Amino acid sequence: MADRRAQLAARVRQTLGEALGATRTRLAAAQTELAAERGRLDRVRQAAAAVPARVGAERDRRLAEIDAQHSARIAELSRRAADAARREAPGAATADWPQWHPTPARRAEPPGPLRVGTLAVPRGEPVPALVPLLDAGHVELTGGDRVAGEAVVAALLLRAVGRADPGAVRLTGYDPEHLGGGLAGFAPLGTAGLLTFVGPGGLGRLLDDLVEEIHRINSTVLAGEHRSLRELAAATGRRPEPWRMAVLLGGEEPSRHERSQLDRVVRTGAACGVHLVVRGLTLPEDATVARIRVEPGRVELAGAPPVNLDPAPPATLVTETCRALAARVNAGPEPTPFTDLLPPPDQMWREDSAADLIAPIGEGTDGQPVLVTLGDYPPHALIGGPSGTGKTNLIFAWIGALAARYSPAELEFYLLDFKEGVSFARFAQGRRDPSWLPHMRLVGINVNTDREFGLALLRFLAEELRRRADAAKKYEVTKLAELREVDPAGSWPRIVAVVDEFQMLLAGRDAVAREAADLLEDLARRGRSQGIHLVLASQDVRGIEALWGRPALVAQFTLRIALPKALRILAERNDAAQSLPRHHAVVNAESGLAEGNEIARIPSASDWETWSGLQHRLWRMRPPDAAPARLFDGDAIPRLVDAPDYQALSAPETGTLRAPTALLGEIIDVQARSAVLRLPRAPGRNLAVLGTRVDEACAVLAAAGRSLARQHRPGAARFSIACLDPDADSAARSLYTDLGDDVAWYDEETVTELMAETTAGLGTPGVGTPHYLLLFAVDAAAGALAARVGGQTGLEQLRRILHDGPERRTHVLAWWRGVARMRADLGGPAARTDQVGAWVALDTHGGELGASLYPGTGGPEWYPRPWRGLFFDRAVHRTGQTIIPYGHQR
Ligand SMILES: Nc1ncnc2c1ncn2[C@@H]1O[C@H](COP(=O)(O)OP(=O)(O)OP(=O)(O)O)[C@@H](O)[C@H]1O
C-alpha cells in the first residue's frame, strides 16, 4: 500500500512538476513577448515623437517647390504673352522708339493692336500693353495726367500711321481748346491732306461726315459681301479704303444729335475703318471701346494689371516720319504691279474672243480689277491725256492684259505711233531683243509725217473688213461670233488697231486726211460686227476736235479712257479726269457720261524689264509658224538688199525678160513692198527723177540700176552711166563699180558721145540688147548737148532716144534738177512730156508737176519732205505714190 501511495505521490509530483515546467515556459514566452511589445511601444513612441518635425520639413520643401514652379510658370507665361503680343502687333506697332520706323502691314495682313506701354508683371518679363484700334475699335482716355495722356495719343497715332501704307491713315483733329493733345508733331501730314483740323463748333459736321463715310462704305464697298473692311482685305488682299481716325480733344458737352452720331460711329465705325481717339468726351458702352485711365503715377487699361506707360515718341521722330510720309503721298501712289493684270502662267491664252475681248486695265477704288471690253458694245476706244500722263504705259498695260489672255489665233494687233519715239518698237523683233509679241502684225513707229502709212493701214483694215463681210454674207450671218461658229476652220481673230496721236492722220485738208476720215468712219461703223476694233489715242485736244467734226464717227467710240487732266475725252460736264491722281485713268464705257466713270489705278507696264518678262513668256509660247511683226520705222532708211522684191529678182537662164522692172524705193505700206517701174518695149518707158536733192536722186537711180542688173545675166544688158554733177560722183561711181563689165562711164566731156552712139544704135535693124542710160544731173550737160554733132544736137539725140528708145529696149532713167530744166531739155516749156512715162518728184512741189505730167489740173497734192519722193507712172497710176528711197545700198 505504501508503495502504491508512494507511486501515487510520485505520479502526482511528476504531474505537478510537468505543469509547473509548462507554466514556466509559458511565462517565459509571455515575458519575451511582453519585452518585445514594450520594445515596439518604445519604438512607436520614439517614432511618434519624431513625426511633427519631418512633416514640417516636407511641407516646407513642397512649398518651396511650388513656389519655384509658380515663378517659372509666371516667367514662361509672361514670355509667351510678350511673344504673342509682338507677333500680333509686329514692327511699328510695338517697337521701342530708338528702333522705331514704319513697317506697313502687307497686303492681307491685319495692322494689329498698338502698344502704349507694358503691363507690370511681378517676377515676369514685361508684356506689351496693347490697344486694339485700326480695324478694331476706339480709345477713350480719362484721368488727370494730361502730359501722359498726350503721350498715349501721340504713341497711338504714330504707331497707327507706321502700320499702314503711306496715305492709308487719314487723321482729323478736333481740338477746340487748343490743347495740342499730342497732335502737334503730326502737322506735316497736313501738306498731303492726311491731317485736317476741324474748328470749334465743327464736331457735329465731322461726326456727320464720318457717319456718311460709314454708310457709303457699307453700301458700296462692302456691299453685303463682307462684314468689314478687315474681312474684305483678308479675302481679296486689297484695301480699297483708308483708315479714318478722328482725334477729339475735349470741347463742350456734345448735343443730342452729336451724341447719337457718336454712338453710331462707335457701334459701326470699326468695321469700316473709322476710329475715334477721344479725351474729355465720354464714349458709350461698347465692346470696341478701350478705356485708358491716366492718373499721375498710375495708368490703367481696363481689365488689365497696371500699365507702365511708354515715353512719348521723340518729337523729331514724329515730325520726320510725317514729313517723309507726306512726301511719299505727294509723290503719288506706288503703282500696282503689272502682274495683277495677268492670269497665272498656266491660264494664259485660254480665253475665246468670239463674243468680245475683256481684260483688266488696272485696279478700281474698290480694289477690284477694272475690266475693259471691246466687242459689239463698246466697239472702239478713245484714249486721251496730255503728254507724260501715261498714255503709252496704258497702251502697254492693256495690250499686255489682252495678249496674256487671248492667243494670236484669237487676237491680232496693229499699232501705229505718229509721234517720235521707239517704245513700241519692242513689240517687233529687234537687234537687242530677238523676241516679239506674237499677236502683233504691224508696228509703225515714228510715223510722224508719213500719214500715207496710216492711210495704208486703214485701207488694209477696210480690205479685211470687206473680206469678213463677204464671208459673213456667204454664210448668211451678221456677226463675227456667228461667222466663227459656221466657219470654225477659218481664221477670224479679233483685230485691235491702235493709233497713237491719230490726230496727225486727220491733220490738213488734203486727200490723205479726207480718205483717212472716210475710212475711219466706215471702219468704226462696220468694224464693230466684224471684230475690228479701233483704239485711237491722242495727247492733243485738237485730235479729239478733229473727230468732233464728224459726229457719226465719234458716236462709235463709246469707250473713253481719260488720263489725268485729259480734256474733251469725257462728256462735257464730266470733269472726273481733272482731279485724277498720277497713274490713274477714268474708264468710261458710256460715251463719257459721268455715270459711267470708273477710276482705275494703272500699273507700270512699259519699263523694259516689266514688259519683256511677259513678252518673252508669250514669245516662247508662239506657234511654230509665227512670224515677227512688220516694223515700219519712219526714221529708218530701208536697204535695197533687204527688200523682199529685190531678193526675189533673178535673171532668166536664157534670153531677156519681156518687161524688166526697176525698183525705185519702198512704198509706204502695210507690207514692205517696192515701188516698181516696169520697162517693157513700149513708148514712154523712161523715168525722170525731179528735184535738187543729190542723195535721194542718186539713191533712186542706183536702186533702179542695181535692180535692173539683177535681171540680166552678165553680158546680156548694157548700162551707161553719165555723171554730170560732182556731188553725185561717189554714188554714181559706186554703182559703176557694182555693175561690173556691162557698164560704161561718161562725164561732161563724153556724154555727147553717149548720145550720138546710142542714137546711131537706134538706127540699126533689130531690137538689140537692153540698154539702160542712167543719167545723173543730165540738165548739167545742157551746154555740151546743145552743140551740134553731125546733123543733130545732143539734146535732139536725147529726145530721139527718149522717144524711140523704149521700143528698142533702150530706156533713159535720168535725173533732172527741176521740172523746168527737164522741159527745156525736152524742147521748151510747152514741149510734150509723154516720152517720160514715169517720174519721181523729190523737192518739187505738186504745182510744178501739172500740165502734161499729171492727170487733171494743178498737179498732185505733194509737199516735199526729206527722204521721200512721189512716184507716178502714167501707165499704172491714177494718183502718185509716196516712196522712201533705198539707202546704204550695200
Ligand atoms: N501707271 C504707271 N505707273 C508707273 N509709272 C508710270 C505709269 N504710267 C506712266 N508711267 C511713267 O511715266 C512716264 C510717262 O509715261 P508715258 O510715256 O506712258 O506717257 P505718255 O502720256 O505716253 O507721254 P507722251 O505722250 O509724252 O509719250 C514714263 O516714264 C512711264 O514709265
Automatic annotation (TrEMBL):
Swiss-Prot/TrEMBL keywords: ATP-binding, Cell cycle, Cell division, Nucleotide-binding
Source superkingdom? Bacteria
- Region annotated Disordered, chain positions: 82-113
One GO process term, biological-process aspect: cell division
FtsK domain boundaries: 367-572
Q: Name one Pfam family in it.
A: FtsK_SpoIIIE
In this entry, which stretches build a coiled coil? Answer: none
**Which residues of the sequence carry a binding annotation for ATP?**
385-392
State if Cell cycle is listed as a keyword: yes
The entry lists its GO molecular-function terms as: ATP binding; DNA binding
Stated name of the protein: Cell divisionFtsK/SpoIIIE
The species this protein was found in: Salinispora tropica (strain ATCC BAA-916 / DSM 44818 / JCM 13857 / NBRC 105044 / CNB-440)
